[in-house]
Amino acid sequence: MTEMQQPAEPENFPARLHHYAWVVKDQERTRHFYEDILGMPLRATWVERTDFQGIDLIYSHTFYGMKDGGALAFFSFADPEVYERFAPRMQEMFVHISLKINQEGQDQVIKRCNEAGLASWSYDHGYCSSFYVTDPDGLLVEFTVDPPNVDEINAEQARNAHASLKAWMAGDYTLTNLFRHETHYS
Length: 186
Known about the structure:
It is built from four helices and eight strands, in the order E-H-E-E-E-H-E-H-E-E-E-H. It is of the alpha/beta class.
């Protein structure tokens, strides 16, 4: 495959994110964060019971909706000891979920997070502008606004993605993000 050729999308290519799941300690604290502060509506709460690896699990599974039908989902357990077994471990900034949002929506999320006194930061990647906030259980959530020329940027990246990856794997660490102006997080 040459640098200019791109593989065709498979016929059964995933359509969208259905949900991303995370374990939480307190479903109401999670609801307050995602629904009241971030503005993502609670769409479903399932209470279930199952045998998992020899453990009788009773758990709740909540879903907070996104415009495209996808969701962020959260598990909590009736037994606090089960929570301790499956509790997420704090991650650095490179482990996160990013949600696409328009500028007005991002501004509203920033305002509500600031009003709630939440630690957060913003970063302009050049190819998108991001706002980061960590939920009460350590999930780093990024709200991303694409620039007006996102289609041009994506087309350029699609043309060069394989060649850039090949160069990286060969030890060529030449920077390829020519859109970013700053090199630090604020």
